[in-house]
Amino acid sequence: MDFRTLLIMFAALVGPPRGSAAAPPDAAALANRVDGHLAAAWSEARLAPAPLAGDAAFLRRASLDLIGRIPTVAETREFLSDPASDKRARLIDRLLASGGYTRHWAVFWRRSWIPQTDTQQFARLADDFERWLAGRLRDEIGYDRLVEELLTVPSGRAGPAQFAAHSESTTPKTFLEASETRPENLAANASRAFLGINLDCAQCHDHPFSRWTRDEFWQTAAFFAQPQATSETTPVAFRLPIPDTSQVATPKLLDGQLPAWPEQLNADTGRKLLARWTVAADNPYFARNAANRIWANLFGLGLIEPLDDLSGENPASHPELLDKLTEAFKASGFDLKYLTKALMLSKAYQLSCAAPNGDADSQDPSLFASMAVRGLSGEQLYDSLRVAAGLPVERHDLGISPGLDARQQFATQFRVERASHAQRSIVQALSLMNGELTVELTSPEKSPTLGAVADAPFFDTRGKVDALFLAALGRPPGDDEAGPLVAYVEQRGVDGQVRKALSDVFWSLLNSSEFNTNH
Amino acid sequence: MARSMKFGRRDWLRLATLGTVAGSQSGWLSALAADAAPRRERKRSVILLWMNGGPATIDLWDLKPGHANGGPFQEIETAAPGVKISEHLPGLARWTKDMAIVRSMSTKEGDHGRATFLSMTGYVPQGAIQFPDVGALVAKEIGEEAADLPGFVRIAPGRNGSTSGGGFLGPRYSPLVIGEGAAGLDDLTVPDLKRPTEVSDAAQSRRLELLAGLERRFEAGRGNAVVETIQSSAARAVRLMRPEAAGAFRLDQESDEVRDAFGRNVFGQGCLLARRLAERGVPFIEVALDGWDTHQNNFERVKDLSTTLDRAFSALLNDLSQRGLLESTLVVCQGEFGRTPKINGNTGRDHWPASWSAVLAGGGVKGGQVVGKTSADGMKVEEQPIGIPDLIATVCTAIGIDPKKQNISNVSRPIRIADPAAKPILEVL
To answer: Using the beta-carbon criterion (under 8 Å), do B214 and A481 form an inter-chain contact?
Structure first.
């Protein structure tokens, strides 16, 4: 028995740790509220929503959204043949409890909070951060605590012993390091990531259209300043000179309040006070920002756009809905799985991509009357390619392997900014058409899927084409689709070999936009 | 944006039709080639010679002979009366009539990453804003949708660059990167441009037909910008694979004489490739020469680098001129900053953004002149300080782009091509 199998068995025995013992909040009830709000908006716009997506489409969408990859053939067959009426809810529960969820959402939160870790300069910080975050998500730590841990990690160089430095239980200093521990960077990044407030413009001047002033920016930054010669109890110790001026900023919260300073000040006091204010239940932005970002990740578009502008300049497309989600998220104790599940149980999430009136261009996407077609992140695409080919997904929680480097490289090459606005470059397209990975995955010798399909004696040609469709697109082909492909394979392609013809079919499936999007 | 997406969709459909009609006969790729639109009137191009690491411009373009900061290099007279440059740039000395030397570049970023970002994008890093490189902005403004070649090509970049490529303009304008960290001339190729050896030409055509069939069906009812960009990039990739387009990268089509003239090294051949691309209408090409971070042993290294630069840069100007392309091709030579006028204890020079030089040559530039002036010790700009946004505004104006034009950024705020405070250098235009 290999190490990996052992680990999986161990995890199955122990089971996921549970959070609070209180009655879990009712996700289905919140889902109904979501649908109620949207139904009212649709009726006001005299719009009929798209029909519900079929089971195959739902399974693929939910898998990509929760565990970052398409379903396997076995998962698809099992889900499609399950007659139970509650199978979608059970699927969501199963996926949320899986390691795939923690790993995929660790990437999502890293990218939302610390987008710099996708740049060459800070990319080295990404792995440790994701490992830690995946562990915290597995342990179902409240979102408020997560963020507080991240912001209050001791900044001192003398950290835990070397062996513990990369363990998942040590909160990494990623957020500080990716801001180069400069107060102005930390203020801008923390406000953007955790409050949905963009202070960038206020750094240099008072922006005419923004609520935030230059003073407010530097007063926020002052919380991150190194205290100068702490004396007695004077909070004056946190002072930050404003560049190119003779002014010095002292800490003040964005809501205008002065912080309650403790008796004893030390280097991290300012940061801790700001963190506590940030994650407090009465902070008007914190829960709202999280709810808006989770919504945007699942629906393509935030209820407020841009995501980092909750200042009120851009009103929410459905204000009461966002309020409701924010309140419910807070009331649940910042339970990420609860909110995620509630959104996915909604009919809105389960709508088909087909626009109600047949023309996606003319529909206002902020009505959410059909599901957005979204691009895949580099990680989603890489993992999905491997799953389609019948290969296991590379995981960095199981130790270092050469495959992880390949995944990292691919993810960098195929990085997308926002899934709903994903664009593909020529070099990406060339790589997917002609690159080494595609050659490998479309080779019957190296792709288990293709090998099995080519050699299976019990499949006729239609059966083979069906199997390739299931593997790549998570659905069987319609007769009109299968026709030309079956004919192509039966004519033995252009090279006179059935195996090569099947490889050609598989290549076209992997390059299709149906494969390359979440829809 | 919406319009270009539409084009992509039509492009794809046309491609699919051609595939099914002509594919069986002479191969799908050549069928598309025969259909290529005739070339329109030539637009302008920019070739950026990127001196990676921060060149000691005090030893190239703005020497201080006789001063302790000057070092051992001598000045030489050039074709333009009164304009003197380093003795190690004898080839370029013949071209100063076509060059404007800006000796008053003055910036504030002394870190390679931040200074490179500023030079490439015109802005300092600001939070989540994904500023596009100037190359992407230029590609967007003067690139042609129907062109087989991409609008922005980056040749042999160093590894420490931290720029954002297409940035908020999207990967459509991201550079086609060739020869990243290239060790030899064989690395100056487009990755994955050739179909895999396992796949015959005929099989490739049929694969594309099968794909086109899938696309036609998926598109029904789901027409969407994300899908269209996937389809359009695939179509553009196929266009780039066409022998005519792929041929742009075939340096072996040049004579030995021409190849020798540019220098048989990555930078020299990169410049030759840049000329081939400019010739074919690519709006922005960047070629990097690495190794300018001369904290130690500055003079020996700068002498070597000067030789490489001189040979390739002058061959490029000569070649462009002979082909009648110099007037429509702007060549910019710069790094991320200059180096300390004061020579350090290791006979080196350290980072120095306060006063340095950049060079503009060819298209749209009034040559034979020097802009700005540094002090006798080289430490200060004494006349006409020029910032990066000013330089970018100058480049844009020279090639007919309004530097004040706005694009919507990824944070949904409009951002101008060059910072609103930027002023083009009027005397070079």
So the answer is: yes
